[in-house]
Design brief:
Structural class: alpha+beta
Distance between the termini: 33 Å
Number of helices: 2
CATH architecture: 2-Layer Sandwich
CATH superfamily: RelE-like
């Protein structure tokens, strides 16, 4: 079953600000998440709900609603900044 992707306005803006090559890698990773929301390398977050997946020096934070088959991406930022706020 393929999950429906929802990308928050904030995450969409963060993706647009990334370098072109990184944007491409992030978009490919997001597309793969819809098929497998818990790929090898994805980690469950401890301080908040959701998961993270690594793309180079960047992190994609997302939540999974298994009942509705929805994957919500809410933050895409550099590793050092992504967990603040």
């Amino acid at each position: 079953m393929v999950y429906r992707l929802e990308i928050s306005h904030t995450a969409h803006r963060q993706i647009r600000r990334l370098p072109a090559q990184t944007q491409e890698r992030v978009n490919k990773t997001i597309a793969r998440l819809s098929e497998n929301p818990r790929p090898p390398g994805a980690k469950k977050l401890t301080a908040r709900d959701g998961y993270r997946v690594r793309v180079g020096d960047y992190r994609i934070l997302y939540q999974i609603d298994d009942g509705a088959k929805v994957l919500i991406i809410y933050r895409v930022m550099a590793r050092g900044d992504v967990y603040r706020a």
